[in-house]
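## Example record

The block below lists the input lines for one assembly entry, exactly as stored, with component labels intact.
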Amino acid sequence: MALDVDYLILALTEGLKSGVNDGLRLIQSSAKELAPVRKIYKSGRGKTKSKGGPGVMSAKTAISAMSSGWPVHYGRQLVIGVQHPDRAFMSGSRSATHRGTKVTRGGGTTGIERGGQKSATQKEKIGGSIRGTANSYAPVVQSPVGRIGGQELRHWSTSPSGEGVLALRVIRKPSGGTFNPSDLLSSRGRYEVRTGRGVTTNEEGQQVVGGNLRQGIVVESAVANGDLIYGFVSASAHDPGRKHNYARDQEFGSRHNAAHPFLRPALRKNKEQILNLEKGAIARALKRAKRPPTGSGMTNRPVRLVARVSIVGWRSARNLGGFVSSREEA
Amino acid sequence: MATTSAAIKRGIVRHARAQANLKAAIVGGIHEGFAPEKVKYPFMVYGLVAAPYGSLWGSRVIVALVDMLAFAENGVDASNVDQLILDAFDGAQFSVDGQTTLICRRIADIPGGPDVDSEGKKIYQIGGSYEIWTDQTL
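Predicted C-alpha coordinates for the full assembly:
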Protein backbone atom coordinates (compact mmCIF):
# COMPACT_ATOMS: atom_id res chain seq x y z
CA MET A 1 0.00 0.00 0.00
CA ALA A 2 1.42 3.40 -0.89
CA LEU A 3 0.92 6.02 1.78
CA ASP A 4 2.34 9.36 2.76
CA VAL A 5 3.87 8.84 6.19
CA ASP A 6 3.58 12.41 7.44
CA TYR A 7 0.02 12.75 6.36
CA LEU A 8 -0.75 9.29 7.72
CA ILE A 9 0.55 10.24 11.17
CA LEU A 10 -1.46 13.44 11.09
CA ALA A 11 -4.61 11.62 10.02
CA LEU A 12 -4.07 8.89 12.60
CA THR A 13 -3.54 11.39 15.39
CA GLU A 14 -6.71 13.28 14.56
CA GLY A 15 -8.69 10.10 14.00
CA LEU A 16 -7.54 8.52 17.25
CA LYS A 17 -8.20 11.69 19.20
CA SER A 18 -11.72 11.70 17.89
CA GLY A 19 -12.06 7.99 18.73
CA VAL A 20 -10.73 8.53 22.25
CA ASN A 21 -13.16 11.38 22.79
CA ASP A 22 -16.07 9.20 21.64
CA GLY A 23 -14.90 6.50 24.01
CA LEU A 24 -14.63 8.94 26.89
CA ARG A 25 -18.17 10.10 26.29
CA LEU A 26 -19.33 6.49 26.34
CA ILE A 27 -17.63 5.94 29.69
CA GLN A 28 -19.05 9.18 31.02
CA SER A 29 -22.54 8.18 30.03
CA SER A 30 -22.24 4.73 31.59
CA ALA A 31 -20.65 6.14 34.75
CA LYS A 32 -23.55 8.53 35.15
CA GLU A 33 -25.95 5.61 34.93
CA LEU A 34 -23.96 3.61 37.46
CA ALA A 35 -23.26 6.42 39.92
CA PRO A 36 -24.98 5.85 43.26
CA VAL A 37 -27.87 8.14 44.06
CA ARG A 38 -28.78 9.35 47.51
CA LYS A 39 -32.48 9.33 48.15
CA ILE A 40 -33.10 13.00 48.68
CA TYR A 41 -36.57 13.18 47.18
CA LYS A 42 -39.60 11.48 48.55
CA SER A 43 -41.00 8.93 46.17
CA GLY A 44 -44.24 7.06 46.43
CA ARG A 45 -44.76 8.06 50.02
CA GLY A 46 -45.35 11.12 52.10
CA LYS A 47 -47.67 14.04 52.28
CA THR A 48 -47.32 15.22 48.72
CA LYS A 49 -48.09 11.86 47.20
CA SER A 50 -51.09 11.29 49.41
CA LYS A 51 -52.82 14.35 48.04
CA GLY A 52 -53.48 12.47 44.81
CA GLY A 53 -54.45 13.81 41.39
CA PRO A 54 -52.94 17.17 40.55
CA GLY A 55 -50.93 17.10 43.77
CA VAL A 56 -49.03 14.06 42.59
CA MET A 57 -48.49 15.59 39.19
CA SER A 58 -47.23 18.77 40.73
CA ALA A 59 -44.85 16.93 42.98
CA LYS A 60 -43.34 15.07 40.05
CA THR A 61 -43.06 18.25 38.09
CA ALA A 62 -41.54 20.00 41.04
CA ILE A 63 -38.92 17.32 41.54
CA SER A 64 -38.14 17.45 37.87
CA ALA A 65 -37.79 21.21 38.09
CA MET A 66 -35.70 21.14 41.24
CA SER A 67 -33.33 18.66 39.73
CA SER A 68 -33.05 20.47 36.42
CA GLY A 69 -32.58 24.08 37.48
CA TRP A 70 -34.09 27.50 37.28
CA PRO A 71 -36.12 28.88 35.63
CA VAL A 72 -38.52 26.13 34.78
CA HIS A 73 -42.09 26.68 33.81
CA TYR A 74 -44.49 23.83 33.40
CA GLY A 75 -47.66 25.15 31.79
CA ARG A 76 -50.01 26.51 34.36
CA GLN A 77 -49.24 23.85 36.88
CA LEU A 78 -46.18 24.92 38.69
CA VAL A 79 -43.24 27.21 38.59
CA ILE A 80 -40.30 26.25 40.70
CA GLY A 81 -36.66 26.97 40.77
CA VAL A 82 -33.55 27.14 42.81
CA GLN A 83 -31.43 30.21 43.21
CA HIS A 84 -29.51 32.28 45.70
CA PRO A 85 -30.33 30.45 48.81
CA ASP A 86 -29.95 31.76 52.21
CA ARG A 87 -28.98 29.45 55.00
CA ALA A 88 -30.53 31.84 57.45
CA PHE A 89 -33.94 30.87 56.23
CA MET A 90 -33.34 27.21 56.23
CA SER A 91 -33.31 26.78 59.93
CA GLY A 92 -35.76 27.28 62.71
CA SER A 93 -38.84 25.60 63.94
CA ARG A 94 -40.67 23.99 61.11
CA SER A 95 -44.17 24.55 62.46
CA ALA A 96 -43.57 28.15 63.41
CA THR A 97 -41.95 28.96 60.10
CA HIS A 98 -44.59 27.09 58.25
CA ARG A 99 -47.50 28.94 59.74
CA GLY A 100 -46.43 32.43 60.53
CA THR A 101 -43.09 33.47 59.12
CA LYS A 102 -42.98 36.11 56.49
CA VAL A 103 -39.90 36.83 54.44
CA THR A 104 -39.42 40.47 53.64
CA ARG A 105 -36.79 42.52 51.96
CA GLY A 106 -35.95 46.16 52.32
CA GLY A 107 -33.05 48.55 52.17
CA GLY A 108 -30.60 45.89 51.05
CA THR A 109 -31.07 43.82 54.16
CA THR A 110 -33.17 40.80 54.69
CA GLY A 111 -34.96 39.60 57.70
CA ILE A 112 -37.58 37.23 58.89
CA GLU A 113 -40.57 38.74 60.53
CA ARG A 114 -42.94 36.96 62.75
CA GLY A 115 -45.84 39.02 64.03
CA GLY A 116 -43.90 42.22 63.31
CA GLN A 117 -40.93 41.22 65.48
CA LYS A 118 -37.79 39.42 64.57
CA SER A 119 -37.18 36.58 66.95
CA ALA A 120 -33.84 36.57 68.69
CA THR A 121 -33.04 33.12 67.41
CA GLN A 122 -33.76 34.07 63.85
CA LYS A 123 -31.73 37.24 64.12
CA GLU A 124 -28.81 35.10 65.21
CA LYS A 125 -29.31 32.84 62.28
CA ILE A 126 -29.28 35.65 59.75
CA GLY A 127 -25.94 37.00 60.83
CA GLY A 128 -24.23 34.00 62.24
CA SER A 129 -24.18 30.31 62.61
CA ILE A 130 -26.87 27.98 61.40
CA ARG A 131 -28.87 26.18 63.96
CA GLY A 132 -31.71 23.76 63.82
CA THR A 133 -32.08 20.18 62.83
CA ALA A 134 -32.18 18.42 59.54
CA ASN A 135 -35.95 18.45 59.49
CA SER A 136 -36.31 22.09 60.30
CA TYR A 137 -35.87 23.30 56.76
CA ALA A 138 -39.10 25.00 55.77
CA PRO A 139 -38.93 27.19 52.72
CA VAL A 140 -42.20 29.08 52.89
CA VAL A 141 -42.35 31.68 50.16
CA GLN A 142 -44.08 34.96 50.73
CA SER A 143 -42.57 37.61 48.55
CA PRO A 144 -43.95 38.03 45.03
CA VAL A 145 -41.30 39.41 42.71
CA GLY A 146 -42.70 39.05 39.25
CA ARG A 147 -44.30 36.76 36.76
CA ILE A 148 -43.14 34.07 34.39
CA GLY A 149 -45.63 32.71 31.89
CA GLY A 150 -48.51 34.20 33.79
CA GLN A 151 -47.48 32.55 37.04
CA GLU A 152 -46.80 34.62 40.05
CA LEU A 153 -43.27 34.25 41.28
CA ARG A 154 -42.57 33.91 44.94
CA HIS A 155 -39.05 33.52 46.11
CA TRP A 156 -36.58 33.55 48.90
CA SER A 157 -34.85 36.70 49.82
CA THR A 158 -31.15 36.49 50.16
CA SER A 159 -29.05 37.85 52.94
CA PRO A 160 -25.76 39.65 52.25
CA SER A 161 -23.93 36.66 53.68
CA GLY A 162 -26.00 34.10 51.85
CA GLU A 163 -23.96 34.08 48.69
CA GLY A 164 -23.53 30.74 47.08
CA VAL A 165 -25.99 28.94 49.28
CA LEU A 166 -29.15 27.39 48.05
CA ALA A 167 -32.60 28.85 48.16
CA LEU A 168 -35.68 27.28 46.79
CA ARG A 169 -37.64 29.70 44.78
CA VAL A 170 -41.20 29.97 43.55
CA ILE A 171 -43.85 27.56 44.12
CA ARG A 172 -47.38 28.04 43.12
CA LYS A 173 -50.01 25.49 42.29
CA PRO A 174 -52.87 26.11 39.86
CA SER A 175 -55.31 26.20 42.71
CA GLY A 176 -53.55 29.25 44.06
CA GLY A 177 -52.07 27.63 47.14
CA THR A 178 -48.40 27.61 47.88
CA PHE A 179 -46.42 24.44 47.52
CA ASN A 180 -43.80 23.71 50.09
CA PRO A 181 -40.72 22.23 48.40
CA SER A 182 -39.53 20.70 51.62
CA ASP A 183 -42.51 18.35 51.31
CA LEU A 184 -40.79 16.91 48.26
CA LEU A 185 -37.56 16.21 50.07
CA SER A 186 -36.83 13.23 52.25
CA SER A 187 -35.33 13.74 55.69
CA ARG A 188 -31.90 13.13 54.19
CA GLY A 189 -32.76 15.50 51.38
CA ARG A 190 -33.57 18.33 53.79
CA TYR A 191 -30.27 17.74 55.55
CA GLU A 192 -28.39 17.71 52.27
CA VAL A 193 -30.01 20.95 51.17
CA ARG A 194 -29.53 22.64 54.51
CA THR A 195 -25.83 21.85 54.58
CA GLY A 196 -25.38 22.61 50.91
CA ARG A 197 -24.15 19.10 50.09
CA GLY A 198 -27.14 18.32 47.93
CA VAL A 199 -26.86 21.49 45.91
CA THR A 200 -24.84 21.77 42.77
CA THR A 201 -24.52 23.85 39.65
CA ASN A 202 -25.45 22.25 36.37
CA GLU A 203 -23.87 22.78 32.96
CA GLU A 204 -26.03 25.82 32.34
CA GLY A 205 -24.84 27.42 35.55
CA GLN A 206 -28.13 26.84 37.34
CA GLN A 207 -28.27 25.65 40.89
CA VAL A 208 -30.07 22.37 41.24
CA VAL A 209 -30.98 20.01 44.03
CA GLY A 210 -29.49 16.54 43.78
CA GLY A 211 -27.32 14.90 41.15
CA ASN A 212 -24.09 16.29 42.60
CA LEU A 213 -22.02 13.23 41.79
CA ARG A 214 -23.48 12.78 38.32
CA GLN A 215 -22.89 16.44 37.52
CA GLY A 216 -19.29 15.95 38.59
CA ILE A 217 -18.52 13.19 36.10
CA VAL A 218 -16.75 15.02 33.33
CA VAL A 219 -14.60 14.29 30.33
CA GLU A 220 -11.14 15.73 29.96
CA SER A 221 -10.76 15.69 26.19
CA ALA A 222 -8.09 13.69 24.45
CA VAL A 223 -4.66 15.20 23.99
CA ALA A 224 -1.68 13.99 22.03
CA ASN A 225 1.54 13.80 24.02
CA GLY A 226 4.49 12.16 22.32
CA ASP A 227 3.45 8.68 21.30
CA LEU A 228 0.36 8.77 23.43
CA ILE A 229 -3.13 10.02 22.86
CA TYR A 230 -5.04 10.04 26.07
CA GLY A 231 -8.01 11.49 27.83
CA PHE A 232 -9.74 11.05 31.15
CA VAL A 233 -13.12 10.72 32.69
CA SER A 234 -12.94 12.16 36.15
CA ALA A 235 -15.44 12.49 38.96
CA SER A 236 -15.67 14.95 41.76
CA ALA A 237 -18.46 15.85 44.13
CA HIS A 238 -18.63 19.07 46.04
CA ASP A 239 -18.93 18.54 49.76
CA PRO A 240 -18.79 21.95 51.40
CA GLY A 241 -16.91 22.24 54.63
CA ARG A 242 -15.60 18.69 54.60
CA LYS A 243 -12.35 17.23 53.46
CA HIS A 244 -13.90 14.06 52.12
CA ASN A 245 -13.96 13.46 48.43
CA TYR A 246 -17.41 11.97 47.99
CA ALA A 247 -16.65 10.63 44.51
CA ARG A 248 -13.55 8.87 45.73
CA ASP A 249 -15.34 7.45 48.76
CA GLN A 250 -18.02 6.01 46.49
CA GLU A 251 -15.56 4.58 44.00
CA PHE A 252 -13.16 3.00 46.49
CA GLY A 253 -15.11 2.91 49.75
CA SER A 254 -13.97 4.28 53.09
CA ARG A 255 -13.94 3.39 56.76
CA HIS A 256 -17.56 4.44 56.93
CA ASN A 257 -19.12 3.21 53.73
CA ALA A 258 -18.76 0.35 51.32
CA ALA A 259 -17.60 1.11 47.81
CA HIS A 260 -20.14 1.69 45.07
CA PRO A 261 -17.83 1.75 42.06
CA PHE A 262 -19.13 3.52 39.00
CA LEU A 263 -16.12 4.64 36.95
CA ARG A 264 -14.22 1.38 36.64
CA PRO A 265 -17.28 -0.73 35.83
CA ALA A 266 -18.19 1.90 33.21
CA LEU A 267 -14.74 1.52 31.67
CA ARG A 268 -14.99 -2.28 31.61
CA LYS A 269 -18.51 -2.23 30.27
CA ASN A 270 -17.45 -0.22 27.24
CA LYS A 271 -14.03 -1.70 26.64
CA GLU A 272 -14.96 -3.62 23.50
CA GLN A 273 -16.92 -0.75 22.07
CA ILE A 274 -14.05 1.65 22.68
CA LEU A 275 -11.61 -0.68 20.92
CA ASN A 276 -14.01 -0.86 17.98
CA LEU A 277 -14.20 2.93 17.89
CA GLU A 278 -10.43 3.08 17.74
CA LYS A 279 -10.28 0.46 15.00
CA GLY A 280 -12.80 2.50 13.02
CA ALA A 281 -10.76 5.64 13.57
CA ILE A 282 -7.61 3.91 12.32
CA ALA A 283 -9.44 2.58 9.27
CA ARG A 284 -10.79 6.02 8.44
CA ALA A 285 -7.36 7.57 8.91
CA LEU A 286 -5.83 5.03 6.53
CA LYS A 287 -8.49 5.79 3.98
CA ARG A 288 -7.83 9.50 4.25
CA ALA A 289 -4.07 9.03 4.14
CA LYS A 290 -4.35 7.25 0.81
CA ARG A 291 -5.59 10.51 -0.64
CA PRO A 292 -3.48 13.36 0.77
CA PRO A 293 -4.84 16.86 0.08
CA THR A 294 -3.91 18.21 -3.32
CA GLY A 295 -1.15 20.78 -3.24
CA SER A 296 0.22 19.47 0.08
CA GLY A 297 3.45 18.51 -1.65
CA MET A 298 3.27 15.11 0.01
CA THR A 299 4.27 12.09 -1.97
CA ASN A 300 3.24 8.52 -1.54
CA ARG A 301 5.81 6.17 -0.11
CA PRO A 302 5.42 2.52 0.82
CA VAL A 303 4.82 1.99 4.53
CA ARG A 304 3.92 -0.83 6.87
CA LEU A 305 1.62 0.17 9.66
CA VAL A 306 1.50 -1.33 13.13
CA ALA A 307 -1.06 0.32 15.37
CA ARG A 308 -1.34 -0.60 19.00
CA VAL A 309 -4.37 0.42 20.98
CA SER A 310 -4.44 -0.14 24.69
CA ILE A 311 -6.85 0.66 27.42
CA VAL A 312 -5.64 1.25 30.93
CA GLY A 313 -7.39 1.99 34.17
CA TRP A 314 -6.96 5.12 36.18
CA ARG A 315 -4.04 7.33 36.90
CA SER A 316 -4.54 9.03 40.20
CA ALA A 317 -7.07 9.98 42.82
CA ARG A 318 -8.05 12.99 40.80
CA ASN A 319 -8.52 11.00 37.66
CA LEU A 320 -10.37 8.00 38.93
CA GLY A 321 -11.21 6.62 35.53
CA GLY A 322 -9.97 6.91 32.04
CA PHE A 323 -8.11 5.19 29.35
CA VAL A 324 -5.13 5.74 27.18
CA SER A 325 -4.89 4.99 23.54
CA SER A 326 -1.42 4.68 22.16
CA ARG A 327 -0.22 4.22 18.65
CA GLU A 328 2.97 2.91 17.19
CA GLU A 329 4.00 2.87 13.62
CA ALA A 330 6.89 1.25 11.86
CA MET B 1 -22.07 -26.82 37.59
CA ALA B 2 -21.34 -23.22 36.64
CA THR B 3 -20.27 -20.90 39.44
CA THR B 4 -20.27 -17.13 39.66
CA SER B 5 -18.06 -14.40 41.04
CA ALA B 6 -19.25 -15.41 44.53
CA ALA B 7 -16.93 -18.40 44.26
CA ILE B 8 -14.07 -16.03 43.51
CA LYS B 9 -14.84 -14.02 46.65
CA ARG B 10 -14.89 -17.21 48.71
CA GLY B 11 -11.59 -18.21 47.15
CA ILE B 12 -10.04 -14.85 48.09
CA VAL B 13 -11.05 -15.16 51.73
CA ARG B 14 -9.92 -18.78 51.89
CA HIS B 15 -6.55 -17.89 50.38
CA ALA B 16 -6.08 -14.90 52.69
CA ARG B 17 -6.86 -17.00 55.76
CA ALA B 18 -4.39 -19.63 54.61
CA GLN B 19 -1.52 -17.11 54.82
CA ALA B 20 -0.21 -17.32 58.36
CA ASN B 21 1.60 -13.96 58.26
CA LEU B 22 -1.37 -12.12 56.85
CA LYS B 23 -3.84 -13.77 59.18
CA ALA B 24 -1.72 -12.83 62.19
CA ALA B 25 -1.35 -9.24 61.01
CA ILE B 26 -5.02 -8.49 60.42
CA VAL B 27 -6.26 -8.47 63.99
CA GLY B 28 -9.68 -7.15 62.95
CA GLY B 29 -10.20 -9.88 60.38
CA ILE B 30 -11.40 -9.85 56.80
CA HIS B 31 -14.54 -7.99 55.78
CA GLU B 32 -16.51 -7.52 52.60
CA GLY B 33 -17.53 -3.97 51.71
CA PHE B 34 -16.76 -2.28 55.00
CA ALA B 35 -16.09 -3.30 58.56
CA PRO B 36 -18.39 -2.76 61.55
CA GLU B 37 -17.64 0.13 63.86
CA LYS B 38 -16.11 -1.80 66.76
CA VAL B 39 -13.67 -3.90 64.76
CA LYS B 40 -10.06 -3.70 65.90
CA TYR B 41 -7.33 -2.33 63.68
CA PRO B 42 -5.70 -3.38 61.43
CA PHE B 43 -8.17 -5.21 59.27
CA MET B 44 -8.64 -6.08 55.62
CA VAL B 45 -11.59 -5.16 53.41
CA TYR B 46 -12.24 -6.52 49.96
CA GLY B 47 -14.91 -5.61 47.44
CA LEU B 48 -15.85 -6.81 44.00
CA VAL B 49 -15.79 -3.95 41.51
CA ALA B 50 -16.81 -5.69 38.31
CA ALA B 51 -16.90 -9.22 36.97
CA PRO B 52 -17.81 -9.33 33.30
CA TYR B 53 -18.15 -12.75 31.67
CA GLY B 54 -16.46 -13.75 28.46
CA SER B 55 -17.89 -16.76 26.67
CA LEU B 56 -15.73 -19.08 24.64
CA TRP B 57 -16.63 -22.35 22.98
CA GLY B 58 -17.46 -24.63 25.88
CA SER B 59 -15.99 -22.42 28.58
CA ARG B 60 -16.54 -19.15 30.38
CA VAL B 61 -13.93 -16.70 31.51
CA ILE B 62 -14.68 -14.32 34.38
CA VAL B 63 -12.44 -11.30 34.68
CA ALA B 64 -13.04 -10.09 38.20
CA LEU B 65 -11.71 -6.78 39.47
CA VAL B 66 -11.40 -6.83 43.24
CA ASP B 67 -10.25 -4.05 45.56
CA MET B 68 -8.33 -5.20 48.63
CA LEU B 69 -7.66 -2.59 51.27
CA ALA B 70 -5.83 -2.51 54.57
CA PHE B 71 -7.12 -0.23 57.34
CA ALA B 72 -4.85 0.62 60.25
CA GLU B 73 -4.28 3.30 62.85
CA ASN B 74 -0.96 4.25 61.35
CA GLY B 75 0.38 4.35 57.86
CA VAL B 76 3.21 1.89 58.53
CA ASP B 77 0.85 -0.85 59.72
CA ALA B 78 -1.44 -0.23 56.78
CA SER B 79 1.47 -0.43 54.34
CA ASN B 80 2.77 -3.61 55.97
CA VAL B 81 -0.59 -5.33 55.71
CA ASP B 82 -0.93 -4.12 52.15
CA GLN B 83 2.46 -5.66 51.37
CA LEU B 84 1.35 -8.96 52.90
CA ILE B 85 -1.79 -8.87 50.76
CA LEU B 86 0.35 -8.20 47.71
CA ASP B 87 2.65 -11.12 48.58
CA ALA B 88 -0.33 -13.38 49.02
CA PHE B 89 -2.26 -12.50 45.89
CA ASP B 90 0.04 -11.06 43.23
CA GLY B 91 0.75 -13.91 40.84
CA ALA B 92 -1.01 -16.41 43.10
CA GLN B 93 -2.94 -19.43 41.92
CA PHE B 94 -5.61 -20.07 44.51
CA SER B 95 -8.52 -22.45 44.37
CA VAL B 96 -11.93 -21.22 43.27
CA ASP B 97 -14.87 -23.60 43.45
CA GLY B 98 -15.78 -24.81 39.98
CA GLN B 99 -13.24 -22.56 38.29
CA THR B 100 -9.57 -22.53 37.46
CA THR B 101 -7.59 -19.44 38.35
CA LEU B 102 -5.69 -18.25 35.32
CA ILE B 103 -4.28 -14.96 36.47
CA CYS B 104 -4.32 -13.01 39.72
CA ARG B 105 -2.31 -9.84 39.65
CA ARG B 106 -2.30 -6.41 41.18
CA ILE B 107 -3.05 -3.86 38.52
CA ALA B 108 -3.11 -0.62 40.49
CA ASP B 109 -2.70 1.01 43.85
CA ILE B 110 -5.73 2.67 45.33
CA PRO B 111 -5.01 6.23 46.35
CA GLY B 112 -6.33 7.39 49.68
CA GLY B 113 -5.43 9.77 52.45
CA PRO B 114 -6.01 9.28 56.15
CA ASP B 115 -9.61 9.32 57.32
CA VAL B 116 -11.14 9.85 60.75
CA ASP B 117 -13.29 7.13 62.22
CA SER B 118 -16.33 7.47 64.48
CA GLU B 119 -14.14 7.74 67.58
CA GLY B 120 -12.08 10.54 66.08
CA LYS B 121 -9.05 8.34 65.45
CA LYS B 122 -6.98 8.85 62.35
CA ILE B 123 -7.30 5.85 60.06
CA TYR B 124 -5.08 4.95 57.14
CA GLN B 125 -6.52 3.13 54.15
CA ILE B 126 -4.02 1.59 51.75
CA GLY B 127 -4.63 -1.05 49.13
CA GLY B 128 -4.80 -2.04 45.54
CA SER B 129 -6.94 -3.43 42.75
CA TYR B 130 -6.43 -7.01 41.71
CA GLU B 131 -7.52 -8.55 38.45
CA ILE B 132 -8.47 -12.20 38.71
CA TRP B 133 -9.10 -14.26 35.59
CA THR B 134 -10.84 -17.58 36.02
CA ASP B 135 -11.96 -20.18 33.54
CA GLN B 136 -14.69 -22.78 33.89
CA THR B 137 -15.93 -25.50 31.61
CA LEU B 138 -19.62 -25.29 30.78
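The mean pLDDT of chain B is 90. Chain B is about 25% helix and 40% strand.
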